Amino acid sequence: MEGKKLELMDDEELFERFKNNEDADAFSVIYDRYSKKVFAYCLRTFNDRERAKDIFQRVFTSVIDKKDTFKGGSFIAWLMIITRNYCLLEKRNKIYYEEIKDDYLDSSTSEKNDFMLNEYVRKQIDNLPVDYRELIKLRYYDDFSYKEIADIKELSMAQVKIKIFRAKKILMKALMPLKESIL
User: Which of these three, 86, 104, 122, is where a domain ends?
Assistant: First the structure.
């Protein structure tokens, strides 16, 4: 370890050691430094401890899974951008869910109906043709841009937009009986 204690290393050096599999304890030091800050950010964003814990776990899982995407610069900036993006994604998913719920359910809907709606929508997504299902999940669950999806799937951006449009059309058609049965 070159005689330098992990606790005395800067974030970037620690993360490089972790990224290069030189020292597994380096990540623990980073986690100890920033876990409270990340959790506090999530908690402030949602004011809900359980949601904050969920996002917090996703952030650190993502940091580990995507460690190779860190190309240098400020580690804390990179970490907080990931944190912010997961919080925004969660908020957007909630807003998207609320819009669907408002479109298909009245305000007296119970939590049981909310659960049933979630399950029904999830089932309809799972019933989509594989290529449509993957695109919907990349776009709305993983928050990839159309350009990123085009790169991942090796399609043109126009093809991605058309397929996502068609998938949403199929989903809306599949959700129509639910709307009619509730109203």
Answer: 104
| Tokens 């370890």, located at residue | 1
| CB atoms inside a 10 Å sphere around CB 181 | 8
Number of domains present in the structure of the chain: 2
70-89 as b/e: b if 16+ CB within 10 A = beeeebeebbbebbeebbeb
Say how far apart CA 41 and CA 10 lie, in whole Å: 22
Q: Please give the single-letter amino acid code of residue 137.
A: K
pLDDT tens digits for 58-96?
A: 999 999 998 988 888 888 888 988 988 888 888 776 654
Q: Which of 88, 104, 120 is the last residue of a domain?
A: 104
Residue 99: domain span: 1-104
pTM exceeding the 0.70 threshold for the entire prediction = no
Q: In the chain, what's the furthest Cα-to-Cα distance?
A: 70
Q: Contact, 153 vs 134, CB < 8 A?
A: yes
